[in-house]
Protein 1
Amino acid sequence: MADKDTGTDPAQNAGAQDYQAITLKLRDEVKKLLQNKDMKYVIGWTAGSYGLRISPVFIEDPKDLDKLVWSPFCINSLAVYPTLEEKLPLPRGTPEDTRRIGIVVKGCDSRGLVQILSEKGFPREHVVILGIPCTGQIDPDKFLPLLVDKGVAKNIKMTDIDVTDQNDKFKFKINNIEFESAKAEVIYDKCLTCKYPNPILFDIQLAPQVEPRAKAGEGYEKVAELSSMTDDERWAYWAEKFERCIRCYACRDICPVCYCKECLTEKWEPDWINKSKNLTENTMFHITRALHLAGRCIDCHECERTCPVGIPLLEIYKRIEKEIIDQFDYEPGLESEAKPVFSTFNPDDPGQFIL
Ligand code: SF4
Ligand code: SF4
Ligand code: SF4
């Protein structure tokens, strides 16, 4: 098992990966795991049914091993499944299945698992973590215009693309068309400011560690910009965003650390947040969710990626993240044994709010 203090080993730094070799190693490790009778399944990624989409896959049977892939299209965090799948209510009289599960994680995903473990969301011994250091994931919104430019049909699947990681660029081969692109042009914005590309916690590491693109304290430019607005300007900014929210709750459902059995948004008595979709209720939802995630949000950006109306949710959560780092010197999802920040009290904590 490894934790935060393993950090990046400079001797193992690498900026490029062999996706095929890592995929084969992954299948091999999963095959070995499934030979244990106490292993229920391993959750990994597989090619999605359309376009550049990737899907989660639960491998229970070794005959499905070749479904598993590792590529720069594996953006989905799988860290949500241990609580989603393993905490389902059991029919009366059904004994609990206590077999272990395996899960494949990138650096950002691993922070979700670490945070859940630190909150005692599920037992550490229940999960085997297969960690893959990550050199950046491709954002379809940035990549598709490039494909059109190169004369490649928009409706290709990720399995049609042969991609090679060449450190600061990708080389693509699609049928007879070959081209290159700087990574910085096509990877997700969150990957451009990634501080933790290496899994924080793992049992099996499938590739050498890689260099982070950003350092502590970086990536708060938007927070500073919003903080410099007047209250009225900031309210106008957020009112326009919150007005667009359709309350689909995709942001909540995808979030690895939003795993309460009973969500406040679904309670009728008391009806804390009305089901109506209007600016008042939407604002209440977003403020409540932001406060419930204070000191817990692990910066995976899955909520923002999933939001169908493009609300920049991380602009809220990063504002709170910065406050927690500045006030308490605490960043969630880095130490599975650490107590969550709001579960501890230190007499030296700032207490200006206490009258
Ligand atoms: S944020 Fe980091 S670990 Fe996560 S997908 Fe991007 S580069 Fe990989
Ligand atoms: S995913 Fe977007 S639209 Fe849906 S509830 Fe969340 S913020 Fe609103
Ligand atoms: S609030 Fe968004 S960024 Fe934070 S942990 Fe949840 S899904 Fe990830």
Note: Confidence is low (pLDDT under 50) at residues 4-14.
Protein 2
Amino acid sequence: MDVVDIAKKTLLIYPLVEGHCRRVANLTYAVTSLLHMSNHKKITLAAYLHDLGKTTWPPELLTKFPIEPSDWAVITAHPIASLNILDEIWPKSPEFINALVRGHHERPGGGGYPDGLQEPALEMLIIGACDVYDAIINRHEFIPGEALSSEFALSQVEQFAPVQIMDALTKVIQKNTSTMPSA
Ligand SMILES: [Fe+2]
Ligand SMILES: [Fe+2]
């Protein structure tokens, strides 16, 4: 079995998390391809692996809203938990992929976690952008309520993603939307 198959088995502890990781990987693949990034397959793989650590959460935390201050330590530790699982299922994973998994919640200016990097790598921000976009438009899967719009999701991503990511993500979303069969 390759790492994707093993990761999929682990992620399927929570099918909602597996679905999220798969969609984030698909979006990341489309965005990095559009940006002609040479290492786009590795970035896409990191995107699929990014939330492995959420499989260690108690099930109620996945769908909890609002989150309580006491949950924050577990939540902010999940990129490290992802790395720990990755180390078990793929002991020789490339450092590049490890860094992206660890850094998918880093934000410019140091407002992210777990390391508060001032200038996260572009690849981290691409996964972060696709992650936030998917988490918002599919939030209703985790937390019952009205579906949130693509426009709202993009406005949230815009708060931290540089313009080249915004342009590519917007194009990918427009293309996906326009190729959807009309009901
Ligand atoms: Fe995450
Ligand atoms: Fe995520």
Note: Residues 20, 24, 50-51, 131, 135 surround fe (ii) ion (ligand 2) (CB under 6 Å).
Protein 3
Amino acid sequence: MILAKAFVALLAASTGARMMRKDEVRERQMEALKKWRRGPGPAVLHESTKRSEVQNITFSNPKASEFWVDGSALPLVDFDVGPSWAGLLPISNNPNEMRQLFFWFFPPGPEGSLDDLIFWTNCGPGCSSLKGLLQENGRSTIKPLSWSYGQAKPTVNENSWTNLSSVLWVEQPVGTGFSQGTPNIENEDQLSEQLLWLTGESYAGFHVPYIANYIYENPTLLDLSLQGILIIDPLISSWVVQEEIPAVNFVHKYEGLFSFNQTFLKYLNEKAARCNYTDYVSTYLTYPPKGLLPLPGGFSDITADCDVWEDIFNAALIINPAFNMYRIWDTYPILWDILGFPGSFPQEQSPIYFNRKEVKEAIHAPVDTEWSECSVANVFPDGDNSLPPAFTVLPNVIEKSVRSVIVHGMADFVLIAEGTRIIIQNMTWNGLQGFQTPILDDSFIVDDVGAFGTMHSERGLTYYEVVLSGHMVPQFSPVAAFQIMQHLMGFRDTP
Ligand SMILES: *[C@@H]1O[C@H](CO)[C@@H](O)[C@H](O)[C@H]1NC(C)=O
Ligand SMILES: *[C@@H]1O[C@H](CO)[C@@H](O)[C@H](O)[C@H]1NC(C)=O
Ligand SMILES: *[C@@H]1O[C@H](CO)[C@@H](O)[C@H](O)[C@H]1NC(C)=O
Ligand SMILES: *[C@@H]1O[C@H](CO)[C@@H](O)[C@H](O)[C@H]1NC(C)=O
Ligand SMILES: *[C@@H]1O[C@H](CO)[C@@H](O)[C@H](O)[C@H]1NC(C)=O
């Protein structure tokens, strides 16, 4: 009896203590969110150039008007996104040129710089940069637009990179095509003499350094002055380094999340040991490096008997068929996505936005072309013939650039951050190999919020690891990505 009473009292006390009304919960969330809200004025070094309206860009070439997009009439968007220009342009001046690239150009928002131009390209090969525009860094001028996973309708994106400067999204494949033809923007005199920042994600780890290198080595080609590059969760070396060596470490780091059974963990550990992955990081990933870093087994291609990544992916799918290699903690339900690609697997959940006839017409896209976010089914391309940029052009690009940035989301299992650390420590630029001093914990500070990962800067290269972010850092951590872009462009004093 007494016990029961005590129990009832305890229950009352504990439920009482835990009672939180929904509006109180909401209040706490709003309080936390305040720190993530940015005031206007992203371009801190551009205070004097502050304007209150969208910048009106004019083009000396009268043909530009054919590409103008009416920002007040984008289908399904119930606000005015401001002026922009989009369409197809041939990749060369050859009158018989059949190859055309689709571009979408936005001028800067009120506080953005008119002296700069950001070029963005997405992953792939075969994935569209319009994904970046609609779901990552994008969108517009008056009211930047964002339509990410699970959103019933587009919302204003406060962290659009158009707050920094003009942005040009180009649908790839650009790669070699872009390099051999003069980029299409040569027709837009307005853009000449601007400072160019090349940025991209994933497979763009190949494109961006090669394009940058081509521009640096052919300086008369462009009326733009290339300043630097930013590559996000980039493929820049071999799959063995970017997936296999760090894969089992990654599982241990997120062991509770993967929730593998003990038998499988034991199997993974034994395989990693046999393949010489287990002690790799503790032995070779030192600051400064002790010499060139070896490739376990001396091979750079994935072999079946050491493919721990594949084992992990398959096992993760068994207990979580919604497993998203681009952001490992996703579970069911798979979110609705207006672009039809909300995770590891394409989904047929909606009429795809860029596949709607009226959308294609609004942005001067070819109406009879079937658009899909990734046209190539193989997420793991065999690579092109170029050697990985870390072994070839990347050091030269870093040396020629004012600043170069590599960013990695920590929840990305497609390309794993620790592999990027290995690549950096094995790379020689500006006279030395790798970083000379260690990457410190909590060294990336997001303004007003606090530690949000790590950051390290030496000899013109800054490397960021962003916590709580999957593969697409501007989509999953837009405030962090925006701050990183400010650093790249010299709009802030600290990284
Ligand atoms: C971007 O500009 C808009 C409009 O001026 C402003 O409301 C927003 O806070 C800016 N965002 C950032 C990240 O500075
Ligand atoms: C921008 O400039 C163009 C051409 O100079 C002009 O036709 C248009 O009305 C201007 N738009 C705004 C919003 O000022
Ligand atoms: C490190 O660089 C050397 C020389 O380019 C190369 O032979 C080796 O395979 C690289 N190691 C890794 C882990 O990529
Ligand atoms: C692992 O390292 C040992 C000792 O250096 C070597 O004999 C063996 O071939 C390596 N195994 C693999 C799969 O790389
Ligand atoms: C443990 O995990 C492995 C890999 O997913 C699976 O094949 C095996 O059936 C699992 N064992 C049990 C008891 O669930």
Note: Residues 62-237+384-489 form a domain with the Rossmann fold fold (CATH 3.40.50.1820).
Protein 4
Amino acid sequence: MPDNALYTDLSCYYDLMCADINYRSQSDTVHRLHQIFGNSGLKYLDLACGTGPHIEYFIKEGYQCNGLDISQSMLDIAALNCPEAKFELGNMCTFETDSSYDLITCFLYSIHYSGDIENLNGAIKSAHKALKTDGIFCFNAVDKNHIDNELMAKHTVLHDNSEFSFCSSWFYSGEGEKQKLKLSVEKTTTEITQQWTDEHPMVAINFEALQNLLMPYFDVHIFEHDYDKIITWNKLSGNAIFVCVKK
Ligand SMILES: C[S@@+](CC[C@H](N)C(=O)[O-])C[C@H]1O[C@@H](n2cnc3c(N)ncnc32)[C@H](O)[C@@H]1O
């Protein structure tokens, strides 16, 4: 099984895996942050958009939506979920467009898919270049020094006469600039169980280093990872929402 099977062979299960994520409240929070810090313009790009769950909400808010992802299988589903949006196959670390976006997002920790610090820097530079002067780049991230290798998120969904169990967890060895996202999918149909596991290599970084990468390009505001209220980051939490206003 390739290490990105979830986004290729298993892409049809992706929306089930994310069934417990409140995409509406995430999107509402980003929309509010854009109204507070950005220019309120409506040209929107979602990086690593997957099957387009954020784009679905931004379409309802009247945005002109675009999505970019490295997996054609995920984009095929996104195009069905969001027929009003435009999708492009591409790498967020190297993509190029004119400076025409008001808002760029990258959620579900997908910025870490840039893989290493050099490519993360590439993603930051590409997003900066693609924004209008007062546009914002908004994403969530995890600080490598706060990863608890014992923590695991698990949920179960009944679908199509089968029971699906999805597990995800971070792993960081404690050294270097690589962490892993471990994922597993279990499908049980009439007592027969199939299991798939993925390990996704991702960039590991602490928040001080991430701010230092962002600051040459953006004014950086950091918030607690809370989609019910907007609270300034307490400088201790290991998960946060970054709002970066183009300089
Ligand atoms: C965890 S999913 C997140 C999808 C969506 N943002 C969400 O919140 O549900 C990660 C996505 O990142 C995409 N991806 C991974 N590496 C990428 C890269 N270098 N450039 C663009 N997309 C990438 C994968 O194909 C996958 O669709």
Note: The mean pLDDT is 95.
